[in-house]
Amino acid sequence: MSSHSAPSFKNPVVRWVDSRLPVFSYMHAEYGTFPMPKNLNYFWNFGALAMVVLITMILTGIMLAMQYTAHTEHAFDSVERIMRDVNFGWLLRYIHMNGASMFFIVVYVHIFRGYYYGSYKQPRELLWILGVVILVLMMGTAFMGYVLPWGQMSFWGATVITNLFSAIPLVGENIVTWLWGGFSVDNPTLNRFFALHYLFPFLILGVVILHVVALHVTKSNNPDGIDVRGPQDTVPFHPYFTAKDSVGLGVFLLIFAFFVFFAPNYMGHPDNYIEANPLVTPAHIVPEWYFLPFYAILRSFTDDWWFFSWFLSWLMTAKLAGVLAMFGSLIVLAVLPWLDTSKVRSNRYRPIHKWLVIAVLIDFVILGWVGGKPAEEPYVSIAQWSTLFYFFAFIVLTPIIGWIERPRPLPASISEPVLKGGATTAKMEKS
């Protein structure tokens, strides 16, 4: 804030408040005159979109909680009552339900943008780690929220996922009992999941605030991945990026509205409209689509898999190996700043690593596809090879490519490619 002149507010009330609590000066400095790299593309919209969705989820969640009953005998019926009897309850639920999918879509794009343009590199390592923490908290929140409707997939998904902790040696069974609040998924489980599902979004909001503060300390990365050289490389956040974010927000809201009004159950599972029955197991238990890549990694570890039987079977069970691999897939993201040994940030100037990033994206999509398929061939083998490639790409190929790759020359400043492009355009027009 010290680099910006103190604003002079015309409104006397705003001026009076700001002289005693400089919140308006802070907002002016951080979201008004804050210098932004002038070459940011629309991929930089997704952080703002994630914040919009988070606030939407918190507001709709609070209103839904007023009508929801966290009891195994009434939860399913209370959701049906919200849909049928509560004024605009159907709209609140569809916004909240599809908002979870929209949240993961924008966050996944946001993470991939940071991965492609090297936003995890020095000095933004902590910023990146906080982003991974947000993703983990989102996954926990979404999992507990999926249990609340108390449909078939809610009950059996909770049973399968919580049972994973039993693979932990010595304390696993005790952890499962503690999670359940008893000896099976029942009313205590639903109660604590509802309480945590209500709490976690505010925890996410707190980490998001830390994420934004860290961003404003280290400043935004840019598609060229080079540092800002001076005022000629930047423009104020307002009105340039408020306008640009507004365009992205308008397009996003149209897509969001399409799913809410025309395909509200497209990304859900039909079995969750059947009330939970502990005596009837669904033919195919699957989590929500945004968990499928990690679910595929979990399921890929089987007793007959050659990789497990050769390297890990003497050390742990296949179930424990799958659990560790699932959590390990998130840990490798967190330590990516230290796995990547290249000094160049953006893949615009990294001809080899660029293709590795694209390959990892394709691999992640394949894992999501097989995660939604039955645990049978050929899907199990595809998941196993995709899992191996995922870890091999991050742990082995990423540092090796950083050592052997010869990046293309970087521009001297952010303005240079723009000015060169302008000069080229002017020559073409003259010719």
Automatic annotation (TrEMBL):
Positions of heme b b566 binding: H110, H211
Cofactor binding comment, as recorded: Binds 2 heme groups non-covalently.
Gene Ontology, cellular component aspect: respiratory chain complex III
Domain Cytochrome b/b6 C-terminal region profile: start-end pairs: 227-412
Topology with respect to the bilayer: Multi-pass membrane protein
Cytochrome b/b6 N-terminal region profile domain residues: 13-224
One record GO biological process: respiratory electron transport chain
Pfam family, one: Cytochrome_B
Domain of life: Bacteria
GO-annotated molecular function: metal ion binding; oxidoreductase activity; quinol-cytochrome-c reductase activity
Keywords carried by this UniProt record: Electron transport, Heme, Iron, Membrane, Metal-binding, Respiratory chain, Transmembrane, Transmembrane helix, Transport
Membrane-spanning ranges: 42-70, 90-114, 126-148, 154-181, 193-214, 247-267, 318-339, 351-370, 382-404
Cofactor: heme; heme b
Residues binding a ubiquinone: H216
Record-listed heme b b562 binding positions: H96, H197
Main location: membrane
Compartment annotation: Membrane
Self-association state and partner proteins as the record states: The main subunits of complex b-c1 are: cytochrome b, cytochrome c1 and the Rieske protein.
Family designation: Belongs to the cytochrome b family.
Protein's job: Component of the ubiquinol-cytochrome c reductase complex (complex III or cytochrome b-c1 complex), which is a respiratory chain that generates an electrochemical potential coupled to ATP synthesis.
Protein name in UniProt: Cytochrome b
Organism of this sequence: Marivibrio halodurans
Phylogenetic placement of the source organism: Bacteria, Pseudomonadati, Pseudomonadota, Alphaproteobacteria, Rhodospirillales
